[in-house]
Amino acid sequence: MANIYDVARLAKVSTATVSKVLSNTPYVSQHTKKRVLEAIEKLHYSPSLAARGLTGSRTYVIGLVVPYDPDYLFSDPFLLEVIRGVESVANDNDYNVLISMAKSADQRSAYTKLVRTGYVDGAVTLETFEGNIASKVLEEQGIPFVSIGYSDAPNRHNSVSASDYTGAYEAISYLIKLGHSRIGIICGPSHFMSALEERMRGINDALQAHAIELDSSLLTYGDFTLDSGYKACNELLSSENRPTAIFAMNDRMAMGAMRCAREYELHIPHDLSLVGFDDIPMAVLVEPPLTTVRQPAVEMGRCATQKLLEMINADVREFESIVLPAELIIRSSAAAPHWGRANS
């Protein structure tokens, strides 16, 4: 494998000149630059990331900061779709993606580990927890980044999200129009930030628009996993004030609720309607296919990465946060409540 000394010998220049060409320093003649580039191409030389970092040139590596542990990340289809979007744009632009994940119960570690590497040109962050850790760790180091989620910066700059409010509003409005007034809500963890706050705001506004008050006994919590959806649904169905419909704040919890409902020998949607959020690939494969709110996961990853590359290229320093549309996808898991149950 060729190294910088081989390139310098073939081009008949110093290693310092090779470094200047690699870092695109302007003080190199076009003739010399041409010789160096021809030598690099002939030798198939690729400078190491560490060497690039030392010269101050680009590494063509972007960080993807995931504040979850690996077990959680690789079991979440929505997050994997986001990563697919990030990778597609990075790959199209000859960038590599370095994923930094958190240690269990320590979301900050995902950011600090990335900073310690010292050779990323910028980062895309999944900013879902309270406190916006990225803005505290990455900004201190001068690393440009774009958040997929909600930024706490003034005027909400440099973030890409889906319209959580609109998605939740449309989902609840749809269930109400079907005839449901007792709607169970399976919310996410209380330490999650703005995405769930926006969804709850959409739920409340939809209920109020139809003169329905949110019943706290119909509100329960999960952690976005199948098992937590199962447990939350069991809590709702075992109460005296059993709902006729359930809105879960992600598809996996809705699928867990579906399994629980079957154990109660409830037919979906005849006895219980279910609506999820995300539209992961499995949503269309379960029986019955899940009515859900589609978040454009791949497009969120693509958009965030494209904006990051614009920041790295100094085309923009900051941009007004982008909100992509969420869409209610109607399938077969929700229907009008069985006669006599809606107001019994």
UniProtKB/TrEMBL annotation:
Residues 2-56 form the HTH lacI-type domain. The keyword DNA-binding applies. The keyword DNA-binding applies. Gene3D superfamilies: 3.40.50.2300, lambda repressor-like DNA-binding domains (1.10.260.40). This is LacI family DNA-binding transcriptional regulator. One of its GO terms (molecular function) is DNA-binding transcription factor activity. Signal peptide: none annotated. InterPro entries: HTH_LacI (IPR000843), LacI/GalR-like_sensor (IPR046335), Lambda_DNA-bd_dom_sf (IPR010982), Peripla_BP_I (IPR028082). Keywords: DNA-binding, Transcription, Transcription regulation. It comes from Candidatus Chlorohelix allophototropha. It holds the Pfam family Peripla_BP_3. PANTHER family: HTH-TYPE TRANSCRIPTIONAL REGULATOR GALS, LACI-RELATED TRANSCRIPTIONAL REPRESSOR. SMART domains: HTH_LACI (SM00354).
